[in-house]
Amino acid sequence: MKVAEMNPFVRFAGFISLAATPMRSARDQRLFYVQGGNVKWEICGKEYHAAAGAVLFIPAGTPYRMEATEQTYLIAVNFDFFQTNADITSTIATLPREEYEAAGPLEKTGFSDRSFGETIFLHNHIPSKMVEKIASEYTQKKIYFREKASAMMKELLLEILRLSVSENAKERTATDRMISYIQENYMNPITNQDVAEHVRYHEYHANRLMLRHTGTTIHKYLTNCRIDSAKVLLTATELSVGEIAEQTGMGTASRFSEAFKRMIGVSPSEYRKQNFRLI
């Protein structure tokens, strides 16, 4: 399964006050957001100390225990990644390890890229409202609350995946600035070095950041941006291929046509025939 296919089923979401729990495993996925206080989790021999704003995702089957060092308030979400077991709406209790081994996980599918295969701990980068809205929606149970909770849960999980790449605020800011620079200047003859110099990073390091946070290199991101703009101009204007090549920073018409066909599979002229006035 791919992350794009994720369609979460929220089995429970609510506001809870925590004391302490024994070491147990859950058959579905668990997510905790610390609203206030301090809590210590013990997971697979590792301790996590969390204050307000922290988020912890625990995959199904992972043994965990938690203990509050003071009065602590959490938002807890029990969920599946998919709707396969949406008929099981009642909450599912955690189990001692031996009982879990006999019962197994409720959801046996995983993601092909190993997303959410391990515990994810984030300190304080998830906006509280993202989690609070899910809990409120589930608690109030208005019409279509499950569908809304599912949509909001998917957004939250995708944000967690993004942040799990790096919690380094400086790196995220630099990547955002590179993206903005490319989007504002793609029509000009800019290079990887220009993008890196904009954030005062070495070109190699800047490229690694871009790859980590967008899944593609600076050069590929720039090319994609130019091609996306060209597709709009091909379908919404009568500009010539040469004019579009110039306006999108692709250089000559021949160079643009070659790059366009390599990425899209058809020439710019053929793409225009298939999609003109589509927008």
Q: Overview of this structure, please?
A:
This protein is α+β, with helices and mostly antiparallel strands and 279 residues long. The protein folds into 2 domains: 3-165, Sandwich (Jelly Rolls), CATH 2.60.120; 170-275, Orthogonal Bundle (Arc Repressor Mutant, subunit A), CATH 1.10.10. It is 44% helix and 19% strand. It has 10 helices and 7 strands. It has helices at 97-103, 128-140, 145-165, 169-185, 192-198, 203-214, 218-236, 241-247, 253-264, 268-275; strands at 9-20, 29-36, 39-43, 46-50, 55-58, 64-80, 120-122. Strands 1, 2, 3, 4, 5, 6 and 7 form a 7-stranded antiparallel sheet that branches. It starts with 8 loop residues before the first strand and ends with a helix.
